[in-house]
Design a protein that fits this description.
244 residues, 32% helix
Length: 244
């Protein structure tokens, strides 16, 4: 399990890491972050993580600002000396809330709660996937019409100003009443999550060019006026997907 610890007191961060690994030796502490600013920079790129342990009051503000300013779906266990932020914690990816000083037992219970929630969500996703296996179309609204769009007609999906769109090979763009994560489940393996903003159909890729800082620029075979770039930490997975 991959964990990031966000804590501005180095000793407490190291103590937390030691306690977590003593509970579960398979836990991997990916990094320590000590401020809101540092976390925002870190999460500018997609990260393959399972869980955060996060202090609420950091030196430059409340850690809730991290999750308000970045699309982060990873669950969080908040660790704090104050109980006044309970409600906001659970409205911000929070799966549990531990008061400092935390004990080995409280950490263990929080990890057990995380695993239980994860298991429950996996079960729900399996059921949802089974229901979606026969889904060949998606319903979109266009003016006063409700239209069925065949999934094979979708070249890409993207989010802009918190609105999700699909763009077809016929250069038509529609608003979709789904999240990008829900679309990814429906569209399946023919689509790749380029970054937080784009899902791309394999058949829409016309040309791939190298860009600065080991990134890749994607040229599509459909008219689309936004630049699509694969970040360097997604390049390997993107190439494997294209070759599969």
């Amino acid at each position: 399990m991959k964990i990031v610890i966000i804590e501005d007191e180095k000793f407490l961060a190291e103590e937390l890491a030691f306690s977590l690994k003593s509970i579960d030796s398979d836990i991997e502490i990916i990094t320590f972050l000590s401020s809101v600013e540092e976390a925002l920079i870190y999460f500018d790129q997609l990260r393959d993580l399972d869980l955060f342990f996060c202090d609420i009051q950091l030196t430059d503000g409340l850690s809730f600002e991290i999750f308000k300013n970045r699309v982060i779906n990873t669950p969080v266990i908040f660790c704090t000396a104050y109980d006044e932020y309970t409600l906001e914690a659970f409205n911000t990816n929070g799966v549990d809330y531990i008061l400092k000083p935390f004990s080995q037992e409280s950490l263990k219970k929080s990890l057990e709660k995380y695993h239980w929630l994860k298991k429950s969500l996996v079960k729900e996703n399996i059921n949802d996937t089974a229901e979606n296996q026969s889904q060949n179309v998606i319903i979109v609204k266009f003016r006063n019409l409700i239209l069925p769009i065949n999934l094979k007609e979708i070249a890409l999906a993207y989010i802009e100003h918190e609105v999700v769109y699909i763009h077809t090979f016929k250069n038509q763009t529609y608003v979709v009443d789904k999240t990008l994560e829900e679309l990814f489940t429906i569209l399946g393996k023919e689509f790749f999550r380029i970054n937080r903003q784009f899902l791309l159909n394999r058949q829409s890729v016309s040309l791939i060019t190298k860009a600065e800082h080991r990134k890749l620029d994607i040229i599509l075979n459909t008219a689309f006026d936004r630049k699509i770039t694969v970040s360097k930490n997604r390049v390997k997975d993107f190439v494997v997907w294209m070759e599969s």
